Amino acid sequence: MLVLGHGAGGDVDAPDLEAVTAAVVPFGVTVARVTQPYRVAGRRAPAPAGHLDEAWVDVVRSLAPAGPLVLGGRSSGARVACRTAAELGAVGVVALAFPTHPPGKPERLRVDELPLDRPTLVVNGDRDPFGVPPVVGMVQLHVVPGADHSLKKAVEPVAGFVLSFLRANGWAT
After folding, report:
1. If you compute the radius of gyration of the chain from its CA atoms, what whole number of angstroms results?
2. Closest C-alpha to 78, from 25, 127, 131, 147
3. Residue 87 near residue 27, CB atoms below 8 Å
4. Residue pLDDT, tens place only, 1-26
5. Where does the record place the KANL3/Tex30 alpha/beta hydrolase-like domain (predicted)?
6. In contact, 12 and 31? CB cutoff 8 Å
């Protein structure tokens, strides 16, 4: 099962999340796209990180995946997936448009949120104002030329990277 979360201002219908879903389902991967409670309540601004993580953990546990669990998401959802991977026993992480730092604040790095102890796929655009993370731990990094934080112009390559990552690790047929 691949569980995907959305970005801070977006929803689960983001083009990259939809493309990933369409690409991996035919290969035996069950996908659950999770909407955070603040969005369900109609708010645009995300809750504090601790609240996001708590809600995510509750939802993922309620899904009770039978096989290997891969967590993922885009932007803020990628950060949540990374921070909760160990607690939820995820075998891997998919981080799309991982926000390495807030825009214009490269000194406030978030690289310590990337898991070091499990396969992690990071896909970022080279024009992302949130930066591109370095390769650390077991991170496999793909930087898409010409793509920004939305990855809207790169949905096909993004979906291909995710499918290849899942297949290489034996989590997709």
Report:
1. 14
2. 131
3. no
4. 999 999 998 999 999 999 999 999 99
5. 2-153
6. no
Neighbours of 154 (CB within 10 A): 25
Count how many domains the chain has. 1
CATH number of residue 164's parent domain: 3.40.50.1820
Q: Is the dihedral of CA 16, 107, 51, 2 positive or negative?
A: positive
- C-alpha span between 17 and 51 (Å, rounded): 22
- pLDDT tens column, 136-164: 999 999 999 999 999 999 999 999 999 99
Q: Which domain holds residue 35?
A: 2-40+51-61+68-168
Residue 56 lies in a domain: yes
Closest CA to 106 of 133, 126, 145: 133
| Residue 19 belongs to some domain of the structure | yes
Nearest to 7 by CA among 139, 145, 107, 152: 152
Q: How far is CA 149 from the centre of its chain?
A: 13
45 is a domain residue: no
Each residue's pLDDT tens digit, 66-119: 899 999 999 999 999 999 999 999 999 999 999 999 888 999 999 999 999 999
Gap between the terminal Cα atoms of the chain? 13
Q: In this structure, is residue 173 part of a structural domain?
A: no
